[in-house]
Amino acid sequence: MAEAKATSCSTCKETRCSAKEQRPNETPEMYADRMAIEQRLCRIDHKIIVLSGKGGVGKSTMAANMALWLSLSDKETGLLDIDFHGPSIPRLLNLEGASIDVRNKTMIPPETDSGLKVMSLGFMLRGRDDAVIWRGPMKIGAMKQLLRDTEWGDLDYLVVDCPPGTGDEPLSICQWIENPDGAVVVTTPQELALLDVRKSINFCRTLDLPVLGVVENMSGFACPQCGEIVDIFKKGGGEQMAREMSVPFLGRVPIDPEIVRSGDAGELAVGQKAGSGTQQAFDSIGKAILEQITGSQNRSK
């Protein structure tokens, strides 16, 4: 005789909520975890997953600037950093040394001056130089805990900074987050990076995860004296790849010494030098992402 499905979720009146019923072949423990995660995330209107097929393309920098741009645009925003082997988000946002407030087994994320809520494994390390030497099951367990136990409250947007590649961590996060708006895929212009980024786009398609678009980072070098753009890594590779794979192209960000300086100082480029080329690039990309989300919502009605 089949066991009756659990129907104990009472956080909302939405009868179609996937957390209200236990799925076939789902153990009680698996269902409890999924329900706990959904109870946290159902109060968040939009969820954006930032991916890259290759490390070193500036994915965390893009995720942090994107989240800060949303926060400075009067959107209630959170940033979840699950890049366990390189948790650079605390440094980028000048939150090194910040502590997590734990209340009744719930973690309250630290906030930036703009009100951006941030959760990262980097807050849990004893020292900033500590290496995370974990096998897959430990990483998956830590990811699940961050999703299940972080109290984000009511948010307009949650930006998730994933590790590079298409392995366990990105796969698990994409499966645990119900109905994300989509993924932003970060690349650099050269073909070596684009080879791996194509895999990320196919990864999204396999999981039925919408691709909001591609960002081409390090697209030319912006001379700090004259502003001239020199194409060190070529230019336009990301845009051409996006066109070939029929996904939106969101924009390009040049190599800018100011991005390096501001990242090291915990003062992201989005909040600096209004009117600069880099600031304009992030502003254009942020608006393009919002247009993709709005357009997708209109098409689904």
Short description:
With 301 residues, this protein is of the alpha/beta class.
Give a verbal description of the structure.
By secondary structure, this protein is α/β, with parallel strands linked by helices. It has one domain (27-295): Rossmann fold. Helices cover 37% and strands 19% of the residues. The chain has helices spanning 28-41, 59-72, 89-92, 136-149, 168-176, 191-206, 237-244, 257-265, 277-300, and strands at residues 44-51, 77-81, 101-103, 106-108, 117-120, 155-161, 182-187, 211-222, 229-230, 249-255. The strands form 2 sheets. Strands 1, 2, 5, 6, 7, 8, 9 and 10 form an 8-stranded mixed β-sheet that branches. A two-stranded antiparallel ribbon has the order 3-4. Strand 8 (211-222) and strand 9 form a beta hairpin. Helix 1 crosses helix 4 (136-149), helix 2 crosses helix 9 and helix 4 runs parallel beside helix 5. The protein is globular, with a radius of gyration of 19 Å. The termini are far apart.
Topology:
Blueprint: H1 28-41, E1 44-51, H2 59-72, E2 77-81, H3 89-92, E3 101-103, E4 106-108, E5 117-120, H4 136-149, E6 155-161, H5 168-176, E7 182-187, H6 191-206, E8 211-222, E9 229-230, H7 237-244, E10 249-255, H8 257-265, H9 277-300
Parallel strand pairs: 1-6, 1-7, 2-5, 2-6, 7-8, 8-10
Antiparallel strand pairs: 3-4, 8-9
- What number of domains? 1
Structural category is alpha/beta
Helicity level, as a percent range?
25-40%
The CATH homologous superfamily: P-loop containing nucleotide triphosphate hydrolases
Task: Provide the low-confidence segments as ranges.
Answer: 1-8
The top-level CATH class is Alpha Beta
Cα end-to-end separation: 40 Å
Cα-atom radius of gyration: 19 Å
Number of helices: 9
The strand count comes to 10
Largest sheet: 8 strands, mixed
Shape annotation: globular
CATH fold category name: Rossmann fold
> How much β-strand is present in the residues?
15-25%
Mean pLDDT: 85
